[in-house]
Amino acid sequence: MNIIPAFPAADFKEIEVWSDGLDYSINDFKGKVILLDFWTYTCVYCLRTLPTMDKIKKKYGDKGLIVIPIHSSEYEFAKDVNNTKRAISALGLDGYITGFDTKNKTWEEYGNSYWPKHVLIDREGFVRYEHPGYGNLSEFEEAISDLLDISYSNDEYPQKNHEGPEENEIAKVYGMHFVGMAPEICLGYSRIRRFGNNQKLKTNDYNILAEPSIILENNVYLRGKWRWDKERVKSSLDYKEKDPAIIFKYDKASNVNVIVGPDDSKPAIAEIRLDGKYLSEGQFGSHIKTNGEISYIETTWPFIYNIVKTKNTETHKVEIIPRSNNFCFYTFVFG
Q1: Is the overall model pTM greater than 0.90, yes or no?
Q2: Rounded to an integer, what is the distance from CA 243 to the centroid of its chain?
């Protein structure tokens, strides 16, 4: 963590609700060292840091430290308290007191502009350390030990720079980041990069798109009829194209993760193909279903899903083919 000039910790601002239904202020935890974990359930780097937060809680929770997750939303759907509660349960975070910062006001109070970020507050209520981005246990322990006034040694981390996928469930599902992996790609018009279709699209409206003959690596393409919104694209099946698709040829990854969900209360379904074929043994992602032939994903709420998993880092063309009109796609994330 980065040591910074001490300043009084800002109080929680406009927290819509706390996970246990109570109300809290920073002063309620005076006398404890506080680790604020600013996260959002749609950020894979936040998810990859959750095991570290769990280790910190278990190791230092009885020594005077409390970990307080503050969930601040990256997407509109994540402002829905019910969606966030569902994510907390799915990720095994029910044992934490989590603040639902649906308007991102507390997030802003601490000068945040990205996820995750960690802020360490001493027993007197002063901010002393900050840590931006993903972190493993060894990156936090020296600062925590300083504020708890206990001894610390890094001898147990002589060669270890990150946790391997065999060591925590999050990494087993989504994989870990690595240098040179395929880039994260958002499809909404507010943040899209590397869009391959050579057509001018109407925003907040439906468009007809044709798949080009040449597919470049790490560019996203659309085929068929799609509505282009600020944060997402939404499928439409009322067009002659029988297989509308999102197409992405990634150059280096072993895990393909996607943020998808329905735009209503009904399940949204999409088939998943790799290099023009349905997934075979050794390619099934953690959230993939199959009827013995067709590989597909069925989503009932917006979440981050793992759709492809291979043993090695590989290059493939993935096609996501909606089979329902309510299927919405937000982002590709790799590992």
Answers
A1: yes
A2: 28
